[in-house]
TrEMBL record:
Residues 1-170 form the FAD-binding PCMH-type domain. Keywords: FAD, Flavoprotein, Oxidoreductase. The keyword Oxidoreductase applies. It comes from the Bacteria. SUPFAM superfamilies: CO dehydrogenase flavoprotein C-terminal domain-like, FAD-binding/transporter-associated domain-like. This is Carbon monoxide dehydrogenase.
Length: 261
């Protein structure tokens, strides 16, 4: 690990000021990705700006027809929160199956989403539910937030503060986990809000994406068998030592049906 300065500000304004003053500083949330990266000397930030002492970033509260979740809320907090379980049980279930107990009690929803790992679980929920990502300066639509492999719409110095998830009449996530890391080799979140249906896929490609053909089929008839005969195009999907693109394409179809069922 390379040397760095450590800051633990107690106000959001101070976090922003530190990041603006030092373009090589990094935000520290739960540290589940950043700390191992530092240990392997794959990153060399000049400073870490720890968000753990900033008030209000862990709140989970009702808002409008949905729920607002603070960016520093842990996966375990999202999984067990009574409001989340009542409004969006599919999101609570997703959080309950991230990593292991240690990861769930340290990792945060904001840190996971900002990292934009192609195999992370939350991005599928953000896109399928069209959540709103709130920062210190603006709101970003969930469908426009993820821009590529480990890339998001966040600008330098911009700090995520919370996420708003609207309620849905149907919302469920199904994934096929890597048995070692428990990351999604493929995962599908299906959400129905009114007449609109979204199916978001994670783990299978370089970044989360919507399966538009499945959405069209499910909009016509919201049933698992509406996807019979529908096959995701494997072009551009991930191939690695765990699974090739064709296998991941097959998994997406299976998982979409499971999520709907």
């Amino acid at each position: 690990m390379y040397g760095f300065d450590y800051h633990r500000p107690t106000a959001l304004a101070d976090v922003v000021a530190l990041l603006i003053a030092d373009e090589d500083a990094k935000v520290l949330a739960g540290g589940q990705t950043l700390i191992p990266t530092l240990k392997q000397r794959l990153a060399m930030p000049s400073a870490l700006v720890d968000l753990s002492a900033v008030p209000g970033l862990r709140e989970i509260v009702a808002e409008g027809d949905g729920v607002r979740i603070g960016a520093m809320a842990t996966h375990a907090a999202v999984a067990r929160n009574a409001l989340v379980r009542a409004v969006l049980p599919g999101l609570a279930d997703l959080a309950a199956h991230i990593g292991d107990a240690q990861v769930r009690n340290r990792g945060t929803i904001g840190g996971s989403i900002a990292n934009a790992d192609p195999a992370a679980d939350y991005p599928a929920a953000v896109v399928a539910l069209d959540a709103i990502i709130r920062t210190d300066r603006r709101d970003i639509a969930g469908g426009a937030f993820f821009t590529g492999l480990f890339e998001t719409a966040l600008q330098p110095g911009e700090v995520m503060t919370s996420l708003f998830f609207p309620a849905a009449s149907h919302a469920r996530y199904a994934k096929f986990s890597n048995p070692a890391s428990r990351y999604a080799m493929a995962g599908v979140f299906v959400a129905k809000r009114g007449d609109a249906v979204r199916a978001a896929v994670t783990g299978a490609g370089p970044s989360v994406f919507r399966w538009h053909a499945a959405e069209a089929a499910l909009s016509a008839r919201f049933s698992a068998d509406a996807l019979d005969g529908l096959v995701l195009d494997a072009e551009g999907l991930n191939s690695d030592m765990h699974a090739d693109a064709a296998y991941r394409a097959h998994l997406v179809g299976v998982l979409a049906r499971r999520a709907i069922a």
